[in-house]
Amino acid sequence: MCRILFRSLAFCLLVALCAGAYVGWRAFGVFQAAHGGFQHLRYLLESGETIEGQPADDVLSDSYLLSLFGDNPELVERLKTVVDLGMATDANLKLGNVSAMIVTYRKNAAGEIFDAAIYAVGGFPDPKSKRLGFHSTGYFREELDSDLWLSGNAMMNLLGRDIIVFCEQDKAEAHMALLFGLLNGGILPLAQRIVESPLYYAVVFPDPKELAPPNLRHKLQTVIIKGEMTGDTGKTEMMFISPTMRTAAQVHTIMKDMAALARITFHDKFGGYIKQMPWGPMNDTWWSVEYVSLIDSLQLIQDQVLVTARVEYDRIKNNAILKTIERAGRDLAMQKSFALAGDLPWEFTFREKDNPSGGYWSTPHRWGPEWPLGEEGVNTPGSLAAAAERERIRAEKEAAAQMNKEKSPSGSGQSPDTTPSSPTSSSST
After folding, report:
1. Rounded distance between C-alpha atoms, residue 414 and residue 382, angstroms
2. Longest alpha-carbon distance in the chain
3. How far is it, in rounded angstroms, from Cα 67 to Cα 78?
4. pTM for the complete prediction?
5. Which of 42, 73, 163, 269 is deepest in the core (most CB within 10 A)?
6. Given pLDDT bands bounded at 50, 70 and 90, which one contains residue 384?
């Protein structure tokens, strides 16, 4: 009997050790990826280096565009047209480097593609003055130590100082205005475009090795993010291409663990859950709640050398994503203002609190699940339908209350104080 007990205890101990070793190995992989990524980013910031990228002539070539969007020949033809137009306008663009490429396009009611554009981020020789270049000195000063702040280059500069827009000639002004607004924290123009017609986008990093942490650097060949966003729905697909199935399995494991870590961060650190308070439910960090729900619905799949992450979301999650983009642009613009004014962030914000054109938190930059897509911003079919449903429910309640009032004794013409006589008193002599 004792021998069986000892064998059982030994087996349980062995299982516990194996499980602990497996969990520890996965935790170490996540820690190594996060720590390596931070150290790599710190080195780039302190050294003042930028991401090299790939030659623009290769990234914007017909063959590369066909390899990325071969399943959409109409889009490829549109992109070829705008790229050829841009290259013919300025041949120097071929000498530049592209570290990230953002492709956007829209579809009309008939499903035809229009307004296709490429935002090429990187470094280009002798840029014209009208091209929008950005160099975010001291971005996120409060998040980085003083040495990183004083070193000069910061987050956005890692990708390059220039953004070149390839688009149709009659759409150039609109795209430049949209880009300028985003880099200065204006999200409403983008929200308006999304409501007018669905926005399709693709973000491509031609050489992700330069941005990836050391333990993932040789496991990634290409990173592509594709998606679409409407006023009430959206979906995104992220594809990580690895050289072999073994490295793809490692990428799949690390990405799965990093998603779990992100969920813990939003749920625990930022309070991404609805609190049950004495006065009722409280959703004070709605954006964090939406991100937790977004991560819970994430599907991470490995297929040969391809690791794919898919997620779908609704209008409120759209607002959380758009607010994140807006906050990044606002912080970028404010940090530039801090550097130009020579003030600390809180000093600058305090001085601008009474600015009639709007300070950091102003009417054009509202906060809440109904902005920028919704009743407080740009109305969508979903928000209009929700408002109509609330109005219908309110009208039904008012009609029911009126009907109950008419059926009450006070509404029948009898006095509520009249006391009916008892049978005993009526039969007395």
Report:
1. 49
2. 121
3. 15
4. 0.75
5. 163
6. very high
